[in-house]
Structure formats: structure tokens, C-alpha cells
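Key idea: predict the complex, not the pieces.
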Amino acid sequence: MTTAHDVAAQVRSGHTTAREVLEQSFAAIAERNQELNAFLYLDHDGARAAATAVDDVVAAGQDPGPLAGVPIGIKDNLAMRGIPTTCGSKILDGWKPPYTATVVERLLAAGAVPVGKTNLDEFAMGSSTENSAFGPSRNPHDVTKVPGGSSGGSAVAVAAGFVPVSLGSDTGGSIRQPAAFCGLVGYKPSYGHVSRYGLVAFSSSLDQVGPFTTTVADAALVTQVIGGHDPADSTSMPDGYDDLLAACGRGVAGLKVGLCRDLLDGADAEIIERVRQAAAVLEAAGAEIVDLSIPELRLGLSAYYLIAPAEASSNLARYDGVRFGLRVEREDVAAMNVATRTAGFGAEVKRRIMLGTYALSAGYYDAYYGQAQKTRRLITNALDAAYEKVDVLLGATTPTTAFGFGDKVADPMSMYLSDLFTIPTNLAGHGAMSVPFGNSASGMPIGVQILSPGRRDDRLFQVGAVLEAGVAK
Amino acid sequence: MSEQSPLTKEEVIHVAGLARLELTDDEVTTFTAQLGSILNHAADISSLDLEGLVPMAHPFDLENILRPDVPTASLDREELLAGAPSVESGRFKVGRILGEAP
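Result:
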């Protein structure tokens, strides 16, 4: 599959049609989706109607928009009216949203063609897709390995060439980690840049929607379409940020890049080596590399695994068997609530709901949740101080390359550790990007992570584009 | 997981009840160990001196704003109810909430 830029250019110029592009996408999916389990649901009729509408606009001599005819995978925690939305959970069995997420509306308005819903860890809680009620997705680079998570299906859909672009959501690394594992560009925008309206809530102060793409410029193109203020999301920021596409061509001359020890220590040696190579590429392009340490980042994991479960325990209280999805009938309502939630939620979701309930409960609130909120402030202050000295931070996206199925299932803490380097960004509400930067000796992709201060995501695209051009093929 | 769990099986059962979940005996044992392991990891922040730091609930200090009080279109009632497990007379239907009168 080619890039979104190329598809849109060819469809807009009439060199191909959106329908042809779509049928190629469906053919690729038909060939390998059973093996890889990237898509949980394909909207054949809706996608064909959308593609036909794009072709009609082109035939009429008009412009269907910057994503004309680009097939897109949508993570199955984003609502599309009338299309099943499962969140990878049995508890939403049979539920069809009565409205469409703002990001999907904006994609459609820009001429994109949503082809279906992609697999995820249940309610986006996980780092491997092994928590999906509908089975895990498989990494196209090695099908014995996980694709990462929680947006694993979206990563696989792009990495396998099914679609040039997909949307994911990132609460603690759920876009960047699978992007790193699958050799893709994965971008988590600054909190508030992309509307969460129609994104099923996991941890509302951390969740953010973003794209998976094969190029940095495609990530900019998609984000310019889905980003910006949305009156339907009270936490979306009223002001936009710089032209991200323009930033891709700006270079890094004079930019100060902080090579952050705390985003490297504990990573595999070959990953650390790749990050150092990336720093050398930036230095050769005129950036100044500054070695630094932000030890507070190490505390992020503990703060995150109290804050996110606390918010989740509240957000997931709505799955009570009354208004949507599954109901397990019992004589009285309270027993029905318990029976429904017990049958409908998987082990990881139960674990996090209980952890959050515990952290918020009387007697433990100050020691756990209150302390985690203060740690969140400590980490954000430490990042702010670092950005007084440097323009961006550079580090690893993940401590390891993609791991095998079952390797971390029995010990949740070992699974959580794979989010160590991605979590601080979410706590601070900043933007970050994972850019593929070579492979391990065993041939698995390695991602390099760029972090920027809040609302200065343009710098991610400056740096990302230079890294992409400078990676040794 | 040789460390002592900071929470007991009884506490896990209590928390599950608060969260409207029912656990099997095996699950109680597993979750007690797993939640304990996570809370033991979190000990690195519970022992920090963070006096004076303002708890951070959200990335931005947003001010609450209200939109103009103008009626706009709402979601379709029938479509919303169509996703519910049980419906009657345009409402969500559930079983008995109160017991028989004494």
C-alpha cells in the first residue's frame, strides 16, 4: 500500500478512483485478515458508498478533500453510527452507537474512506491485544509476536498494507508502542488537540486520538484533518497549533535535542544503539545534542497505574446492563449489575477497575490517588524545567522489541513495564511521536521516540522527518 | 511475588463488591497477589515527600464555560433505546429495585 499523500493525489487527479483503491484494500484484507486479526468488522457497504461519493465529486470537477479516497482503519473504541463498536469487550455485545465520533466525521468530510473497525485490548487496557475478547492481533513482521497495544489492530492494518492510515488512541502509549513494534510512525497529539467526542472513555484526562502511518508527512496530513477545536468536547483546546505539514520540511538546524538517559536506561542494548544513531543523524543535520537526565520520569509508571485505573473505575461504572450491550438477567437490579459486569468484563479490565476502586476508597485515597496526582505534577514540572534547556527530548519508545504471545500475561506488572517510556507524555498532556529507526538483529522493528512540550507538536514533525530521511535502510 | 501483599483477600472481596464484580475463589487469590504486586511497585511514590505540590487532575487548567442556552438537536430517542437490553414505553426497563412492602 502506498502513502495517503499518493492515494489522495492520484484520486484527486483522476489517475485512479476511490473505488479501485478501496477494492484493493478489501482484497488485501481478505487475503490476510483471518491470520492477523487486524479488523474486527468491515463496513463494506458504508465504505463503498463513501468511495463512490468521492469519485462522484471528482467526476463533477470538484475537490473531495486532502484525504480523497484514502482507506482508513478505525480503532474499535471510536463510534461510527450504526456500526458495531465493541471496545474489544463482550460487555458491548450488539451495541451500535447512535452517533459518529468527530474524528471520523472529519475524515469523511476530507474524502477519506473508513473501511472498518480494528482490534484492541479490551477498553484499550493492555500492551499486546492479548486482552481483546475477540482474540489477539498478530505482528506482520513475525506472527509469533504481539503487535503491541492497545491499538494493535490499527498498527497491524497499516503494517500489513491493508490501509495506508489508521486511527488509534493513546492513554499511556497505546499508539506509540504498537507503532514501534510494527515499524510505523505513531503520533500522540498534545492533549486537547484532537476531539475525544465519540471516543469511548478509558482515562479521560489522559486519552488522546492519533494516527498510524508509514510516513511522518502522512501523520501530519491526517492530524490536520482530525485536529482542532470541537464544541462537542469540552476539553478540546480552542486554539490550533502550527502547520504540521510545513514543519516536516523545516529541518532541525539549531534545534536543541535532549538525549534523555531516563528514556533509555533499561532498554535493550540494540535499541539504545539505534537511539544514539538517531541522535547522530540529527546532529549531522545541524541539531545540538544535549545529554540530560530527568529522574522524575521513572516515577511515571506508578503514578499512571493509579491515576488511569482510578479514572477507568469511574468511567466503566456505566456498563451496568441497563442502557447498552450485555445484560445477564437476575431477580433484582443490583444482582443484575453484578452478574452482567462479572460476565462481560475480562480479567485485565476487572483488575484495573478494582485497583482504581481501591486507590479511590476511603482510607487509601491520600496515600495512593492523592499521591499519584502530586507525582503527576512533579513529573510535569520536571519536563517543563527540561524544556527550558532543550526544544525536544529523544529516547526509546519501548524497552524491548515486540515480545511473544503469553510472555507477559501471567504477570501484569511486567506487561505494564513496556509502557515505561511512553507514560510521562500522557501524564503531562504533551505530544510525542514514535518513528521507525531500523530493525533488531532478529529483524523486528525498533522505534525512536521524540517528545515535545505541550502544544509544540510541530517540533515532533521537524525531527521526525529528518530521522525518517536519515535512517540507514 | 515473594513480597507481602499490602492488601488482604478480604479487602479484594470488599473492593470487588464496591465495583459490582463477583470473584471466584481462584480469582480472589490471583487478584490479591497481582494487585499487591502493583501496589508494592507504587510504594516508590507513596513514600515520597510531595508536600506543597498541587495535585494535578488534568493537563490544563481549563475554566468551565457554558455554551449559550439555545436548544439544539438531540440524539434520536428510538435509536438510543435500540441499543438497550430491555425497553418499554420509550424507557429503559429494569427488574425490581425495591423489595415487597413489609
